[in-house]
């Protein structure tokens, strides 16, 4: 059986304890636990423990937004993959464009974080994508290919890796890549993965970039799209549930 579509909600630096508790409660009341999709909620680090308790035995999975490449040490303010696993995380986002652009994360750092995450039993969601300047210059394929080559460890497979393509120019802007553009890049990612390691057919490739209920269907139906990484819409239970409902058209 094929991997079910993945709907991952990245809350970014939003919500406090009370508001996050209400969001999870609303999602559960809305039937999120009965979805055929693999639903991942990805709150800030301060909320991981409380969310883990709330989603226990619901079929909802927990992810973190980042981790440090070392497992322990004098790294004030950082959180290790081992710490994330210990509070119930299954997944961790690595290389999100905001981490790259705002905090200067390099491909080498992301690769080291990926290795650390896998050692601790987490599945990394490795983000790749081009900015507007790179796209307009015709360098989208090369940018994404370089990121894949330099960020991924050897021997990647469906058991230790998820890729998320997020065109930087479409994140939080309301713009979304056209289906033909998404399909072209996702196909390029698939071919690049195969060239790197033959056993990569099952690696899910998510799309992220202003995903909302209005455009989710046309994105999820694309052949190489294995799900979506949702930003702002994941903070609204009605919108997030509506996106999850769109997976009913994705064949297994």
Q: Bin the strand percentage.
A: 5-15%
- How many domains make up the 3D coordinates? 1
CATH superfamily: Aldolase class I
Outline type: globular
Low-confidence stretches: none
- Strand segment count: 8
Radius of gyration over all CA atoms, rounded:
17 Å
How would you sum up the major sheet?
8 strands, parallel, barrel
Task: Describe what this molecule looks like in 3D.
There is one protein chain. By secondary structure, the protein is an alpha/beta fold. It has one domain: Aldolase class I (TIM Barrel), CATH 3.20.20.70. The protein is 39% helix and 14% strand. The chain contains ten helices and eight strands. An eight-stranded parallel beta barrel has the order 1-2-3-4-5-6-7-8, surrounded by six helices. Strand 2, helix 2 and strand 3 form a beta-alpha-beta unit. The protein is globular and about 45 Å long.
List keywords for this structure.
alpha/beta, single chain, TIM Barrel, 252 residues, 8 strands, 10 helices
Condensed summary:
With 252 residues, the protein is an alpha/beta fold.
List the helices and strands and how they pair.
Layout: E1 6-10, H1 17-29, E2 38-42, H2 48-54, E3 61-64, H3 81-86, E4 91-94, H4 97-103, H5 107-119, E5 123-128, H6 132-136, H7 140-151, E6 162-165, H8 179-196, E7 205-208, H9 213-220, E8 227-230, H10 237-245
Parallel strand pairs: 1-2, 1-8, 2-3, 3-4, 4-5, 5-6, 6-7, 7-8
